[in-house]
Write a structure and sequence with these properties.
Blueprint: E1 8-11, E2 18-21, E3 31-32, H1 40-51, E4 58-59, H2 75-87, E5 93-95, H3 107-121, E6 127-130, H4 136-149, E7 153-156, E8 160-161, E9 165-166, H5 169-182, E10 187-191, H6 201-210, E11 214-219, H7 224-235, E12 241-244, H8 251-256, E13 261-262, H9 269-280, H10 284-305, H11 308-316, H12 334-347, H13 350-353
Parallel strand pairs: 4-13, 5-6, 6-7, 7-10, 10-11, 11-12, 12-13
Antiparallel strand pairs: 1-2, 2-3, 8-9
């Protein structure tokens, strides 16, 4: 179901403050406060309002950060990439994530991408902002900035730095409590191998039960389906948003385990959104058959290309001007690139057709 591009300005009962209220495809809302100096009581009231909203489900792909051939930001291509995702019928868009090459951006560039995303999307779908950082203070600042911009949610990995710097569970809990307590919008914990931190289902459940706006978990670690099943059982209603990740390579097992959505790359968001919606509507045969048809291409992306797959296909389809990634993250070998294109041409995804239609 497509949604209107027109935002609605309204005021919430009881506080007289004006906010931007937006229904997404799932019936959820996004609220943007216009006053940065809210009292603690007001923040608590707003947090409760957020938590009573319908949770986001479906497909929430990660938007790539687009570069010119000289590795500078290509903002025109960035706008087209976002428009493609909106037209693909996504339920939300995630920016500044690992698949957005957030680790290769300066703070000023992060700000540019964030401002551009909200300007271009203009409330057509919710935006999720990744605010991961080792420093609690910086993660808090990034999360507050995201909420001020109008984010529907923030996503964070546990604090880490390099190959060896990790923190124990009490310190992690303090980190997540500080971030969640500084904002009123929901938080998604990203359980990703990149952090090098083991997050058990029991620990994730304890966070969801102890921190009211810790409402989502993106599980993309090994044995994801087993962890999701255990997490759903342990957390119950305290975690309304258990999500699949890792390019949806385990999507059907994860949906069987209780996942309500997926956060993949931006390669085939139209297909993956259809799979999730079919599954949640009870049409599991169609969802499974569709996923199995596309799985070889998803597997090729996951094992051979990584984040470069989306850029290759967006470039091939005329959405972006260059598939450049920032050094030292170089291009895939020519044979791998051709292999990806062969998979895509056999299946004719929207990413190859959108700019030409």
């Amino acid at each position: 179901m497509m949604v209107s591009d027109e935002p609605v300005w309204t005021s919430l009962p009881g506080d007289g403050m004006m906010r931007f209220v937006r229904r997404a495809q799932t019936g959820s809302y996004r609220l943007h406060t216009t006053n940065d100096d809210r009292s603690a009581d007001h923040a608590n009231r707003e947090r409760k309002a957020h938590l009573s909203m319908q949770p986001l489900t479906g497909v929430m792909p990660i938007a790539p950060t687009t570069f010119a051939t000289d590795e500078s930001l290509d903002l025109a291509s960035q706008r087209r990439a976002l428009d493609f995702l909106v037209d693909a019928g996504v339920d939300a868009i995630c920016i500044l994530a690992n698949y957005s090459e957030q680790f290769a951006l300066t703070d000023r560039e992060r700000d540019q991408v964030l401002d551009l995303a909200f300007d271009q999307v203009r409330g057509r779908v919710p935006i999720i902002v990744t605010t991961s950082h080792y420093s609690t203070r910086i993660a808090v600042e990034r999360s507050r900035q995201a909420e001020r911009a109008g984010a529907a949610m923030v996503m964070l990995m546990p604090p880490y730095h390099g190959a060896t710097l990790r923190v124990d569970e009490p310190a992690m809990t303090g980190f997540f409590e500080a971030v969640a307590g500084a904002i009123t919008i929901p938080v998604m914990i990203q359980d990703a191998p990149m952090s090098g931190t083991s997050l058990s289902a029991a620990y994730l459940s304890s966070l969801a039960q102890g921190i009211p706006n810790m409402q989502y978990a993106k599980v993309e670690s090994a044995n994801a389906a087993a962890k999701l099943r255990q997490l759903v059982t342990l957390a119950g209603d305290a975690l309304p948003g258990p999500f699949d990740g890792e390019e949806s390579i385990t999507l059907i097992p994860d949906l069987e385990a209780g996942a309500t959505g997926t956060m993949p790359s931006a390669m085939i968001p139209d297909v993956l959104g259809g799979i999730v919606r079919a599954w949640l509507a009870g049409d599991r045969d169609t969802a499974t058959a569709t996923w199995e048809h596309w799985l070889p291409m998803i597997h090729f992306e996951n094992r051979q290309c990584g984040l470069r797959a989306t850029k290759i296909l967006m470039k091939e389809g005329g959405i972006i001007a260059s598939e450049t990634t920032r050094a030292p993250f170089g291009p895939v070998p020519p044979a791998i690139r051709e292999g990806l294109l062969a998979h895509a041409r056999r299946r004719d995804p929207m990413i190859l057709r959108w700019a030409k239609e």
